[in-house]
Amino acid sequence: xxxxxxxxxxxxxxNRKRPxxxxxxxxxxFFCTAPLSVNALEAALNFIPDNEGGKISVxxxxxxxxxxxxxxxxxxxxxxxxxxxxxxxGRVMQILGDRLLFEGNPVQEARWDMYSASxxxxxADGQRRFYxxxxxxFKKFMELDGFRVPHSIAGSTEALDGKLYVLARxxxxxxxxxAPLSILQAFPGREEAKSPWSRLGLP
Length: 203
Description:
elongated, 2 domains, 8-stranded antiparallel sheet, 25% helix, 6 helices, alpha+beta
């Protein structure tokens, strides 16, 4: 059931010249972009060091699973944007302040693929992966697994360097609209829910 797409196509196709067309169209867009129930979106961090530097994983919680499933089945795409920042604490009693070493904004996008009858995620590494099991799909969509931090950044090379730490947060976008309708995502309350920043000290 692709309710949002069907509604918008019908409005654009048959009602374009009718007086109530703008009201019909924007009512449908409001419905399709209205926020899901989000209970205090949270982002939990983990870091695994290795010979190439290390990998950061982020687990998101707070999105209603049943609502998300119903929404994606209606033909919508949903997105999670991760904001990840790696800092080194300031040297010499923090006179120089903390130093931003690296920033990344990996994105994961999810949808229902009616042709393969499976759940699809466009992962942050650029790979498209398909899942026939909803529980597996939901778990994979709600986590960023193994985001690489380069060795040259994660490794300490100066004796006076302070400790490393990561700040991360997640932004959940219920409906990903394509141009020209993407402008509607700038409306207040229509865009996203954001978790607070989470901090993790690195070894």
